[in-house]
Amino acid sequence: MAHETISNLLHEERRFAPPAALAAEANVKAEAYARAASDREAFWAEAADRLTWTKRWDRVLDDDNAPFFKWFVGGELNAAYNCVDRHVEAGNGDRVAIHWVGEPLEDRRDITYAQLKDEVSRAANAIEELGVERGDRVAIYMPMIPEAVVAMLACARLGAVHTVVFGGFSSDALATRIDDCQAKLVITSDGGYRRGSASALKPAVDEALIKLDNANRGLVENVLVVRRTGQDVAWNGDVDIWWHDVVDHASEIHVPQPMDAEQPLYVMYTSGTTGKPKGILHTTGGYLAQAAYTHWAQFDLKADDVYWCTADIGWVTGHSYIVYGPLANGATQVLYEGTPDSPERGRWWKIIEDHKVTKFYTAPTAIRSFMKQGSAVPDSYDLSSLRILGSVGEPINPEAYVWYRDTIGGGRTPIIDTWWQTETGATLMTPLPGVTSGKPGSAMLAVPGVDVDVVDEDGTPVGNGEGGYLVVTSPWPSMLRTLWRDDDRYVDTYWSKYAAQGYYFAGDGAKKDEDGDIWVLGRVDDVMNVSGHRLSTTEIESALVSHPRVAEAAVVGASDPDTGQAVVAYVILRESPESVEGIEKELANHVRTVIGPIAKPRDLMIVPELPKTRSGKIMRRLLRDVAEGRQVGDTTTLMDADIVSKIAAGQATST
Ligand code: WTA
């Protein structure tokens, strides 16, 4: 698969050097690479020293039991203290931590670090009062409101492990995650504003509690509900509690407890190659050190910056680059509740103009959708405050990169194309804005202190101009520690392919160009990337097969000009297709119900058979050829060579 994609690589010659003034004053200069390479552990120890520790570590890296690595062993710190209290103690309590912008116009709140400290302390006291203790799991299912950040930090303050579930996920997906991590408390809200109206969240929590495994019934002792929209909610007095009833009356004095550097901080579920999402476990010290360092380095963070990351806190980007990285750095940032085009298309640009945003971080899928609307809308706003633009989540095509730089960045702003994963916790590859001349479409090189390579099937590094698999060749502080309650799957998924070399296998294909810079090409496994969201083909297939009319299903990710990849499903029905008119739409909506709107197939096709090898394995490669309208590849291993042409002759239904 990697080799197929490589032949499509673009010949991109444009280069954008860092602006001289930015380079001269940059937080991180070229010397950092050599310094980190000469003593990696000393480099990361220095990064960790940017945090406040109550007890210093004895050992930077413990690799005695690889791949179960530990960082800053013996050290103790509190993540919430580092993100909030210490800035107040340093005299910066009046600095705005969060410029919160609700979707309804004029619905705004500015929260200073001093106010955030009080609110996090009150929430920590309230949650503790509900019986949550160190190590307990708390599920957070919320819109983009300040209380979501407060809830995460309150958990961190107590050493409770949060698992934030994206608010766009269905009750089924929420139930699976609550079941897997056995959460004791769920924090949610009545709803949030999306596309101009109040959209409910609490009903999904109510449904999820009913859908829990029998063994876990009653596990969730309480549901803490923030009132955001004021919409009606069903109420179970035994379980449900209003946030304002308990948090508003709690004391704002709460002493943060020191946590071991390896105390679990959160579990973030992400799609893998099987139907069951993986619970990625991140711990405290190494994670916070690298999230904070990379945020400071890649955005060249300065005291007068106004930073804005458009990700949702339900994804890892929101964890590392809205909550933990920026707040540990004492940054001032915008947090926006709603959709980019509500109430009008220029909403994002209006927010940048109003708040004089200097550093902006978003995803290629958003950039492409704005590009389609043309430059007139952004051109009518004052975006001259912007200094650095970031991209994350999927490869950014050179065209979108150049549009982003010119139209949004006025041709002045370096673009940082940051490659990383839920598993990596923080950026592993990016050009640095004050050092690297950017190449449109390439994440280029590892951040200082990180070692990546592109290797062939045997683990041998490929030469310049060649492609292969992206690997990380040494451990890094913010790496996942394991999969929640599944050490075997952790070893198997990430460390077995290159066990002999001890390399982390990222699951992405990549190419080194003639200069040795790295271009990430996309997943080489059954994981799709739709609008920067990771989805597993198997997960969607399981959702389809759970419909009573479906006998079998195959799902592929086909390239899509707007969303990067799109979900295309091929389905065999139990009965003849003529008898069930409109079944395509029904099945697509079924996926939407089971997983969430992001997983709904773009196209769904009823087929008589699926292409399979003689051993019965579905050949998704051929289905991808069909979905992308290509000449169908080698069919010689197929059981029935005619089946693909039959499928290709049929018509997919856009759903
Ligand atoms: C893809 C998001 C190319 C990649 C932080 C990776 C990228 C997956 C980039 C992780 C990038 C992320 N260029 N591809 N700059 N950033 N990816 O876990 O396939 O949601 O494996 O983490 O997104 O997605 P995840």
UniProtKB/TrEMBL annotation:
List of residues binding CoA: 194-197, 317, 531, 592
Naturally occurring in which organism (per UniProt): Nocardioides baekrokdamisoli
GO CC annotation terms, alphabetical: cytosol
EC number, as in UniProt: 6.2.1.1
Domain AMP-binding enzyme C-terminal: 539-617
MF terms in GO: acetate-CoA ligase activity; AMP binding; ATP binding; metal ion binding
Residues that coordinate or bind Mg(2+): 545, 547, 550
Function of the molecule: Catalyzes the conversion of acetate into acetyl-CoA (AcCoA), an essential intermediate at the junction of anabolic and catabolic pathways. AcsA undergoes a two-step reaction. In the first half reaction, AcsA combines acetate with ATP to form acetyl-adenylate (AcAMP) intermediate. In the second half reaction, it can then transfer the acetyl group from AcAMP to the sulfhydryl group of CoA, forming the product AcCoA.
Cofactor field: Mg(2+)
Coiled coil: none
Post-translational modification: Acetylated. Deacetylation by the SIR2-homolog deacetylase activates the enzyme.
UniProt name for this protein: Acetyl-coenzyme A synthetase
Keywords tagged on the record: Acetylation, ATP-binding, Ligase, Magnesium, Metal-binding, Nucleotide-binding
HAMAP family: Ac_CoA_synth
Lineage: superkingdom: Bacteria
Gene: acsA
Residues annotated as binding ATP: 393-395, 417-422, 508, 523, 534
Catalytic reactions of this protein: acetate + ATP + CoA = acetyl-CoA + AMP + diphosphate
InterPro entries assigned: Ac_CoA_lig, ACAS_N, AMP-bd_C, AMP-bd_C_sf, AMP-binding_CS, AMP-dep_synth/lig_dom, ANL_N_sf
N6-acetyllysine modifications at: 617
PROSITE patterns: AMP_BINDING
